[in-house]
Amino acid sequence: MRNVTLQVMPTDREENAGEQGRIQLLKFADVTAIGRSDGAFNGRPVSNPRELRILELRYGMIRAQALTPRESQAFIEQVLGRL
Predict the structure, then answer these.
(1) CA 45 to chain centre
(2) Are 32 and 47 in contact (CB under 8 A)?
């Protein structure tokens, strides 16, 4: 699917911004947004711009620490080849 990007987070990363659990961010056409994270804000939904920015920054850190989409695809193909 063109609107989906997979990135694998290697388990050997010393620092992993995703260790606190999943992040969900929804941005709407009217420029409003809502987000939540298992490990931030007690897991409650947030819409405050400052809190949303914290979730966005953490999401960006996770993406930066993960394999690139191309590397992730190669990794997945390698694992599937072993099965």
Answers:
(1) 16
(2) yes
The helix (H) or strand (E) run that includes residue 70 is: helix 69-82
Cα separation values, 69 from 8, 34, 40, Å? 8, 26, 26
pLDDT band at 1 (very low <50, low <70, confident <90, very high): confident
pTM of the model: 0.78
Structure tokens at 16: 């992993």
In whole angstroms, what is the distance from residue 33 CA to residue 42 CA?
18
Written as one letter, the residue type at 67 is L
Contacts with 62 (C-beta within 8 Å, 6 or more apart), sequence order:
9, 16, 17, 18, 23
Q: Measure the CA–CA gap between 37 and 11, rounded to whole angstroms.
A: 20
What gap in Å lies between CA 46 and CA 65, rounded to an integer? 25
Q: Which of 10, 17, 11, 1 is nearest to 61 (CA)?
A: 17
